[in-house]
Write a structure and sequence with these properties.
The chain has 142 residues and is α+β, with helices and mostly antiparallel strands. It has six helices and four strands. The radius of gyration is 15 Å and the shape is globular.
């Protein structure tokens, strides 16, 4: 089995990732616009639909090695496949946070707080530095 470095992306998935970026689901759009893009979550830059190993992550932060997945009606993976995927990505040093699309649509403030907590944990764990300096109080959508 070929091993991948943490920065080795599967280029064969690039066209699919690009198509997914153009056709985001409503929960993905809301999470992107209200939490990850506009607020620059604590100063960290997130990318949409990024291929990592043999998978495409909904949202990815390189500095934090953090993946955020929005699971919903269009999510065709089983819990077993998600577990296998998350285990493989963890072997590569990535942390995966999964959130249900219903939670995103109905409680975006708490989803934002959960993500902020994970960002702080990963920042501490990895000694990561934000790409943009923002006050913590300025970064979330409270």
């Amino acid at each position: 089995m070929k091993t991948h470095s943490n920065n080795d992306y599967n280029l064969s998935l690039k066209p699919l990732a690009s198509a997914l970026r153009k056709n985001m689901t409503p929960p993905e759009k809301l999470l992107w616009k209200k939490v990850l893009c506009e607020s620059k979550m604590l100063g960290y830059r997130f990318l949409r639909q990024r291929s990592i190993d043999n998978y495409i992550a909904d949202f990815f932060c390189k500095e934090l090695k953090l993946l955020i997945e929005v699971d919903g009606k269009t999510h065709d993976w089983t819990a077993e496949k998600d577990s296998t995927r998350d285990k493989r990505l963890a072997e590569l040093g990535y942390h995966t946070f999964r959130v249900n699309s219903r939670m995103v649509m109905h409680d975006i403030v708490n989803v934002s707080r959960e993500i902020e907590g994970i960002v702080i944990e990963r920042e501490t764990e990895l000694g990561a530095k934000p790409t943009e300096r923002l006050k913590r109080s300025d970064s979330s959508i409270r």
